[in-house]
């Protein structure tokens, strides 16, 4: 028994907003969990403070599965990004505590390492194909084995994935949602050109990825997948919205390009059909938005039965706590595929000191007990919350489109 005696949230904005949960037990051990939901941060913060923390006090921090079930079933209102991010934060913090008490890095508690380190992909983007590929070549130079390519589309302003600051892409950059313009036709012409040029310039010994960000209909996605086949992409991500999982049947009928989806999923129910019917190759559900390590392990176990591998979301709006949790998880499961790794800014790294390290295109969570990541509360207090929104997209006739 290790009784929970206190818990609190910490909201900080070292360049972007992060919400952290800290749980303390009677012997003074504490654990940290990420509760960041981009653009809706304070909803999760309030959910934790008002509705979860009071229920945690006095419980045994070691009963991770029971607390998970208590928060999930006990809420009555199941699933959804706010609830599942709050549960995830508790779950991460409790695994952190268990690791610290055991004196073991979390991956050891999850069954031990299945691989020596975790292959990650970086983000190369630019206004033009040339600029994108110059950035991609720089990633390759740093040892990256996999790179995501996003490039500006001629005739379209503000394409998804193209940043002002090339090194640290941060889409949530305005006080109110910024409006961008979208043209499916222009986009569908541009992406195959990008991949053709990429293979000519970067060769074939590097994995290339692309994120469609839910912008296409299933048949348009099928066409893009087919057009990209000659360049052998590692995956085509979020090619069409997945609320209707059957959408992917149509995409699958038309292309052999591997499909990845799931960064906005909250639970195993969001991907049950996708996995069971083998409509996807990579599931991108992630620790913070899909109910924590406890639930993500269930998703991965289910996916393994159907030859679906993982490719956890790892954008900068997931704090280093989520990154650490993802790395322990990635190291320990048999059907790991790839891990997204968008580097955090030095300000964020200073607020969240961490044990994970990058070498030669691979990440390792390190050997510190628990998650191996902490929060410097004094530094965090120096960066107060600042409202920030993701952009929205409109078609050329003004109608709303998926951003
Ligand atoms: C993206 C994200 O990393 C990705 O694949 O789709 O940048 C996404 O836009 C943000 O995480 C949204 O919060
Ligand atoms: Mg994405």
Description:
With 403 residues, the chain is α/β, with parallel strands linked by helices. The protein folds into two domains: 102 residues, Enolase-like, N-terminal domain (Enolase-like, domain 1); 260 residues, TIM Barrel (Alpha-Beta Barrel). Helix content is 36%, strand content 17%. The protein contains 13 helices and 16 strands. Strands 4, 5, 7, 8, 9, 10, 11, 12, 13 and 14 form a ten-stranded mixed sheet that branches. Strands 1-2-3 form a three-stranded antiparallel sheet. The longest helix is centred in the first third of the chain and has 22 residues. The mean pLDDT is 96. D-mannonic acid binds next to loops. Magnesium ion binds next to loops.
Looking at CATH, the homologous superfamily of the largest domain is Enolase-like C-terminal domain
Can you tell me the residue ranges where pLDDT is under 50 for at least 5 consecutive residues? none
| Helix-strand topology string | EEEHHHHEHEEHEHEHEHEHEHEHEEHEE
How many β-strands, per DSSP? Answer: 16
CATH topology of the largest domain: TIM Barrel
Can you count the helices?
13
Bound molecules: D-mannonic acid, magnesium ion
Proportion of helical residues: 25-40%
Topology:
Elements: E1 4-12, E2 18-25, E3 30-34, H1 41-56, H2 64-74, H3 81-102, H4 106-109, E4 118-126, H5 129-141, E5 146-151, E6 179-182, H6 184-202, E7 207-211, H7 218-228, E8 235-237, H8 247-254, E9 259-261, H9 272-276, E10 282-283, H10 292-305, E11 309-310, H11 320-332, E12 339-340, H12 346-351, E13 357-359, E14 362-364, H13 377-381, E15 392-395, E16 400-401
Parallel strand pairs: 4-5, 4-12, 5-7, 6-15, 7-8, 8-9, 9-10, 10-11
Antiparallel strand pairs: 1-2, 2-3, 4-14, 13-14, 15-16
Helix pairs in contact: 1-3, 2-3, 3-10, 5-6, 6-7, 7-8
This protein binds D-mannonic acid and magnesium ion.
The site of magnesium ion has 5 residues, from loops.
């Amino acid at each position: 028994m290790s009784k929970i005696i206190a818990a609190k949230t910490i909201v900080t904005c070292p360049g972007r907003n992060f919400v952290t949960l800290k749980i303390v037990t009677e012997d003074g051990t504490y654990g940290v969990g990420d509760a960041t939901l981009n653009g809706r941060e304070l909803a999760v913060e309030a959910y934790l403070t008002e509705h979860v923390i009071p229920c945690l006090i006095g419980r045994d921090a070691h009963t991770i599965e029971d607390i998970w079930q208590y928060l999930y079933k006990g809420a009555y209102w199941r699933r959804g990004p706010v609830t599942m991010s709050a549960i995830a934060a508790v779950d991460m913090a409790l695994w952190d505590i268990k690791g610290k008490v055991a004196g073991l890095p979390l991956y050891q508690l999850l069954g031990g390492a299945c691989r020596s380190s975790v292959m990650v992909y970086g983000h190369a983007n630019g206004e033009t194909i040339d600029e994108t590929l110059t950035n991609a070549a720089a990633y390759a130079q740093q040892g990256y084995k996999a790179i995501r390519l996003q490039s500006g589309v001629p005739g379209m302003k503000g394409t998804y994935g193209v940043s002002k600051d090339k090194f640290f892409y941060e889409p949530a950059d305005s006080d109110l949602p910024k409006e961008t313009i979208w043209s499916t036709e222009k986009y569908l012409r541009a992406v195959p050109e990008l991949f053709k040029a990429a293979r000519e310039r970067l060769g074939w010994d590097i994995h290339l990825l692309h994120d469609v960000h839910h912008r296409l209909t299933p048949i348009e996605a099928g066409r893009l997948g087919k057009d990209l086949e000659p360049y052998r992409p590692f995956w085509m991500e979020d090619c069409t919205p997945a609320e209707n999982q059957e959408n992917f049947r149509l995409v699958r009928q038309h292309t052999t390009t591997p499909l990845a989806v799931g960064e906005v999923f909250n639970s195993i129910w969001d991907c049950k059909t996708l996995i069971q019917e083998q409509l996807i190759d990579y599931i991108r559900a992630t620790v913070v938005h899909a109910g924590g390590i406890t639930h993500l392990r269930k998703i991965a176990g289910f996916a393994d039965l159907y030859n679906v591998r993982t490719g956890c979301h790892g954008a900068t709006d997931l704090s280093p706590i989520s990154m650490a949790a993802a790395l322990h998880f990635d190291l320990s499961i048999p059907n790991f595929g790839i891990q997204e790794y968008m580097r955090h800014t030095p300000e964020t790294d200073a607020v969240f000191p961490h044990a994970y390290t990058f070498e030669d295109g691979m990440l390792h969570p390190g050997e510190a007990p628990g998650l191996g990541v902490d929060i410097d509360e004094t530094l965090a207090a120096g960066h107060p919350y600042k409202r920030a929104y993701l952009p929205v997209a409109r078609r050329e006739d003004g109608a709303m489109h998926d951003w």
